[in-house]
Design brief:
The chain is α/β, with parallel strands linked by helices. 41% of the residues lie in helices and 24% in strands. It has a 7-stranded mixed sheet with strand order 1-5-7-4-3-2-6. The protein starts with a helix and ends with a helix.
Length: 221
């Protein structure tokens, strides 16, 4: 049974709309990376711990850091460095005035036993990087003992464990993989080029979809 004219219009329109959304999404990703490159040219400074709060921090802003880091409670997050599995050491600090929690990406190690040494090195300058992304899972991670060995940061479950709100930014030190990835200019430029390329490809797919629809309609008539 040959498809009706109405079904051809509906299916082709939905397909073109999806390709258009994908194209716009890729342009937005390219703009995000371009904005990061622009923001890195600006540096913010905080002179006291009291100045650090949800209201004062901004994405990719560099600030002086003088909060105390908990030496007993910390996170080990799975990471990759030079194609090898490593552990990102995430320290926990608390803002004295509000009791909000700050997660501090202090660096990485290939051995869990070296994490305590990294915790003792308090960074002088950090950069606020938004906590983004998620891991699709059917169950929330269960936190039982410290240090917590996790494969991603789930703010909701961590806030229940720490019993305090967590600022939605990671304070990344210059030794952290997160900081290095954010400041990899070549990777950002390459990413921008890829996203623009993907956007153009999705637009071409949309045009091909319209062309094929017109071809089907001509055959029906």
């Amino acid at each position: 049974m040959r498809p009706s004219t109405t079904s051809i219009y509906i299916i082709s329109s939905l397909t073109c709309f999806c390709f258009l959304l994908l194209s716009i999404w890729q342009i937005q990703r390219a703009l995000e990376k371009y904005q990061i490159l622009q923001i890195h040219q600006q540096t913010g400074t905080v002179t006291s711990a009291a100045d650090i709060s949800k209201a004062t921090v901004a994405p990719y802003q560099k600030q002086c850091f003088n909060l105390e880091i908990d030496q007993k409670r910390y996170l080990l997050i799975d990471g990759i460095q030079n194609r090898q599995s490593v552990y990102r050491v995430i320290g926990i600090s608390q803002i004295p005035t509000s009791k909000d929690i700050v997660l501090v990406d202090l660096g990485w190690t290939s051995q869990k036993t070296n994490a305590q040494k990294i915790l003792k090195i308090r960074p002088q300058t950090i950069e606020w990087i938004p906590i983004k992304g998620f891991l699709l899972t059917l169950q929330r991670p269960v936190h039982s003992s410290w240090p917590l060995h996790l494969n991603h940061i789930d703010r909701t479950s961590l806030e229940k464990t720490l019993k305090n709100p967590i600022i939605p930014f990671i304070a990344a030190s210059q030794e952290s993989l997160l900081y290095q990835a954010t400041h990899d200019e070549k990777a950002h430029i390459g990413g921008i080029a890829r996203h623009i390329s993907y956007s153009i490809q999705f637009l071409i797919f949309g045009i091909l979809c319209i062309t094929y629809r017109n071809h089907l309609l001509r055959n029906k008539s």
